[in-house]
Amino acid sequence: MEEAAPPPDPVPPTPPAIVIYRHRLATRIWHWVNAITIFVMIGSGLTILNGHPHLYWGDYGANFDHAWLHTPHWPAWLTIPSGYNLALARRWHLTFALVLGFGLLAFMVASLLNRHFQRDLRVRAQEVAPKHLIDDAIAHAKFDFHNHDDPAAYNTLQKLSYVVTIFGFIPAMIFTGLAMSPAMDAAWPWLLDIFGGRQSARSIHFIAAAGLAGFIIIHLTLVILAGPVSEVLSMITGRWKLPPVPPADPEPEPAE
User: Fold this and answer.
1) Is 113 within 8 Å of 25 (Cβ atoms)?
2) pTM for this structure?
3) pLDDT, tens only, 66-88
4) CATH 1.20.950.20 given to domain 26-124+160-241
5) What is the DSSP string of 91-149?
6) DSSP assignment letter at 81
7) Angstrom distance (rounded) from CA 181 to CA 200
8) Domain boundaries in the chain?
9) Is 143 left (phi over 0), alpha (psi -120 to 50) or beta?
10) pLDDT tens-digit profile of 22-37?
11) Calpha distance 24→73 (Å, rounded)
């Protein structure tokens, strides 16, 4: 008589999802205000650039001067307004520049008070070691974007990109924009000296804007790869569901 087959091993229950509070209110407000602000500023800035699509270094720049870069003519679907209207584009650009500047100031004050900078964006010495950066890049290439020992923590490449954007690209855009204003030049003539002239400030302004646009493209790509629904919801509610931990590689069987 054949023996009955042993019952199958019970399937372990699926552990409940763990939800953590990841994004504070100040970060969420600044994120969505900036999403609108940067969209309008890039579109209106491209309209302004279409008015004279050449970049120079120094104090002066005109059609017969040597330009270090001749930019393409940007299509209407990328510009604000969609039809060429330089005066209206400047009004949009300057209005939202005020939102950008004061929004950054408010976010920095709030992030110092709630320790967001110290807790989440402080880059430690061991994190910028070549081996650590290479390991982080390899993890990104495998679509593994989170530290499974501390899932709420930002990874190193994420920290570096945020630090460069918050303390580099955006302030550079603000101060070079002020340097291109005749009124600000009269009040703060040292701004032009810092940037080496109005045309140099204009070039740095568009370089910083290009860097910010590149950050946005990479940021949106990683959001899509990491799971757009949970990532967007976390930036609305502040609460983020931890992604499942990938299974560990099986250990090799010992040789007989």
Assistant:
1) no
2) 0.84
3) 999 999 999 999 999 988 999 99
4) yes
5) HHHHHHHHHHHHHHHHHHHHHHHTTHIIIIIPPPGGGGSHHHHHHHHHHHHTT--S-TT
6) S
7) 13
8) 26-124+160-241
9) left
10) 889 999 999 999 999 9
11) 40
